């Protein structure tokens, strides 16, 4: 399954994780300019027996970008910019249909105190996604300081997978204002997966030992099976913390270890949960064994 991720790069505004959102008008104008009609003229020959008027060839109009405005049932508003490309309109419609439930899932875990406006971009090419979201071709979506950006490949995802990705990225959007630029990404991704992914049965002894290891940010940057395993480890750790110490315990651990002026994971576990990290890791492995 394609993974979603968060891009922590600084945007051209010079701010990181500020929560400010530039108007998307400039982007729309740029796309419209690129998609403008090109007029080609043929030169008339210098010598001809029967001079003919120059012919003009007009290229067909490419599809234009469009914007969908959505008011969610919790009062939040969403602006979905749909760039030209195969399947982008259909993907945007599917995202719009799942936004209410995604916002409810985020609020159920995080609380209602998060951004009231949501910006989403549905890209039509890998180049657009790389430029706006910073992700590669194996990434389904990414969240920047200003918007959630979906890759073209997300159009081929099942409804269940797209639902997971949308909730995952919407959590990043909700937590962005209080998340430090140097937060451990493996934990931010694990908590986002906790919000996005439905629970499944515990894996049992066959894989518990391999799963019960804290991943690193380097693991998240390694394509292929290593990245997938890192996400799984981060998710199972977050799910264990929520199961053992409650969702609020996981939320407070996130704030302590990923928020502004955060501490490291060992100190965060001790300060928030009242136990040593080694104890948590042992209990985690036992829990995975079922």
Name the descriptors.
6-stranded mixed β-sheet; globular; alpha/beta; 47% helix; 290 residues; 10 helices; Glutaredoxin; two-stranded antiparallel ribbon
Verbal overview:
The protein is α/β, with parallel strands linked by helices. It has two domains: 1-29 and 38-178, Glutaredoxin; 200-290, no CATH class. It is built from ten helices and eight strands. Strand 5 (77-82), helix 2 (88-110) and strand 6 (117-122) form a beta-alpha-beta unit. The longest helix is centred in the C-terminal third of the chain and has 34 residues, at 225-258. It starts with a strand and ends with a helix. Residues 6-59 have low confidence and may be disordered.
Please specify the SSE layout and strand pairing.
Blueprint: E1 3-6, H1 25-34, E2 39-41, E3 56-58, E4 66-71, E5 77-82, H2 88-110, E6 117-122, H3 126-133, E7 139-143, E8 148-150, H4 159-175, H5 185-196, H6 205-211, H7 217-220, H8 225-258, H9 265-273, H10 277-288
Parallel strand pairs: 1-7, 5-6, 6-8
Antiparallel strand pairs: 2-3, 4-5, 7-8
Helix pairs in contact: 2-4, 4-5, 5-8, 8-9
């Amino acid at each position: 399954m394609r993974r979603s991720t968060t891009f922590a790069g600084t945007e051209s505004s010079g701010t990181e994780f500020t929560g400010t959102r530039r108007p998307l008008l400039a982007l729309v104008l740029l796309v419209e300019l690129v998609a403008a009609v090109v007029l080609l003229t043929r030169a008339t020959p210098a010598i001809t027996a029967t001079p003919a008027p120059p012919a003009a060839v007009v290229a067909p109009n490419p599809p234009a970008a469009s914007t969908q405005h959505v008011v969610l049932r919790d009062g939040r508003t969403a602006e979905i910019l749909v760039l030209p490309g195969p399947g982008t309109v259909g993907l945007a419609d599917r995202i719009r249909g799942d936004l209410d439930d995604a916002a409810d899932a985020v609020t159920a875990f995080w609380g209602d105190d998060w951004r009231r406006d949501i910006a989403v971009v549905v890209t039509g090419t890998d180049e657009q996604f790389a430029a706006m979201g910073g992700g590669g071709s194996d990434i389904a979506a990414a969240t920047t300081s200003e918007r959630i950006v979906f890759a073209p490949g997300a159009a081929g995802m099942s409804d269940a997978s797209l639902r997971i990705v949308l909730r995952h990225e919407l959590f990043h959007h909700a937590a962005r204002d209080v998340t430090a630029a140097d937060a451990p990404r493996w934990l931010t991704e694990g908590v986002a997966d906790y919000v996005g992914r439905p629970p499944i049965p515990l894996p049992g002894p066959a894989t518990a030992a391999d799963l019960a290891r804290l991943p690193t940010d380097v693991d998240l940057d390694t394509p292929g099976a290593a990245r997938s395993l890192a996400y799984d480890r981060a998710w199972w750790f977050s799910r264990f913390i929520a199961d053992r110490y409650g969702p609020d315990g996981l939320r407070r651990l996130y704030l302590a270890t990923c928020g502004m002026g955060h501490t490291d994971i060992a100190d965060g576990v001790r300060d928030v949960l009242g136990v040593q990290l080694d104890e948590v890791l042992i209990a985690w492995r036992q829990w995975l064994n079922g």
